[in-house]
Amino acid sequence: MRSIGHFIGGKEVKGNSGRTADVFEPMTGEVQAKVALASKAEVRAAVENARAAQPEWAATNPQRRARVMMKFLELVQRDYDKLAELLAREHGKTVPDAKGDIQRGLEVAEFACGIPHLMKGEYTEGAGPGIDIYSMRQPLGVVAGITPFNFPAMIPMWKFAPAIACGNAFILKPSERDPGVPMKLAELMMEAGLPAGILNVVNGDKEAVDAILDDPDIKAIGFVGSTPIAQYIYERAAQTGKRCQCFGGAKNHAIIMPDADMDQTVDALIGAGYGSAGERCMAVSVAVPVGKTTADRLMEKLIPRVESLKIGTSVDPSADYGPLVTREAVEKVKNYIDIGIKEGATLAVDGRGFKMQGYEKGFYLGGSLFDNVTKDMRIYKEEIFGPVLSVVRAHDYGEALALPSEHDYGNGVAIFTRDGDAARDFAAKVNVGMVGINVPIPVPIAYYTFGGWKKSGFGDLNQHGPDSIRFYTKTKTVTSRWPSGVKEGAEFSIPLMK
């Protein structure tokens, strides 16, 4: 059985806390590895390595830092298939889905290769008599990322690629459920030429998280996970003066207007609602048809599609989705389905009884579909994070617009329509951070920023794009005047740029 330690000072090291966690293979339900859970001392060792290495890395010119990132891209492409299979076997998502996970992370690493341009400051000549003003961006020092199980390649790269390109050293605390790929990414960064100590990986649980939060040498933290933990990390980081960006849960709506192409809409809902077994923060979990006729047409086409979903192993290329990440995740989703029935929603498709022949111990769950869900139900208010889609029928456009706008979460939303005026009005008015128009999962491309509103995001800067450079750097502004032509004598009033 594999033993997974930590990656500190440029190499994998064994854990010495005496604590470990099981890493399951979701498609079989068997334990495939033991991962070490870091102690506070082990986190501190990673930070000390990072602090020692960071000044020289920050002094390395940005084009050389970009070359390391370019080489990293090349190496990940070389090992693409191996990484995707490892990811699939630890997480449960299918191999094609795992490749998408890796690809969306690589796109942010590609963006970070532009760091020589992205870190340029501003300059004003002659701001006053003989006075020039310029600004420069400088790295923060040692920064950290705490990333979730559902995207074990993408989100770590979203965090460490721009941070390292900016000249910081990085401490990554990935999910202990699927730590294999983050460890491999650290190895590939070293092979690409990154100095030892600039990227460290500490596997662990709350003890490691709290050690990161309390360490005085860590200047900034990025987090993705559930909303309660996001809020906890944001508040605790603020108490210790750290810069922090935290992204939490979601309840993403898809508004279906009467003029929508229903076949296209159903295709979108099936992929966005059930892909990766619904274990995505951008999964569509609420469909909102506008008007009874639209709702009836939607359900007529949606029910047989959900019933015919093909659930398979993570390595089955024909599977629509694979198992969930743990048995506890399966039980949690089943419990939400029970709650929905008790609350009075109509369970149009019940996936609780699904069994995978030959893999009875795996963490499988069929697709479920609720109709006649109302906004006071828990299955509407709370994030289920599984293959469950809820249909909330809206009488008109105004009611449909209000549902995502008034929900506690505000990560993503989509509208399906042929009407440009309706789409434009919706995009302008909806109170949600990311909007799709006939696009079910509106994850922006890497050179735009990703981030939700309300309880889906804490902090004023988003992930990737220009915000990532702002988050991982501090701006210094210099006002300079040389002696030539300077009037002698003290000035007691505030200097003016005359």
TrEMBL record:
Gene3D superfamilies: Aldehyde Dehydrogenase, Chain A, domain 1, Aldehyde Dehydrogenase, Chain A, domain 2. InterPro entries: Ald_DH/histidinol_DH (IPR016161), Ald_DH_C (IPR016163), Ald_DH_CS_CYS (IPR016160), Ald_DH_N (IPR016162), Aldehyde_DH_dom (IPR015590), MeMal-semiAld_DH (IPR010061). The keyword Oxidoreductase applies. SUPFAM superfamilies: ALDH-like. Keywords: NAD, Oxidoreductase. Signal peptide: none annotated. It holds the Pfam family Aldedh. Residues 14-478 form the Aldehyde dehydrogenase domain. Its EC number is 1.2.1.27. It is an enzyme of class 1 (oxidoreductase). PANTHER family: MALONATE-SEMIALDEHYDE DEHYDROGENASE (PTHR43866:SF4). This is methylmalonate-semialdehyde dehydrogenase (CoA acylating). It comes from Bradyrhizobium iriomotense.
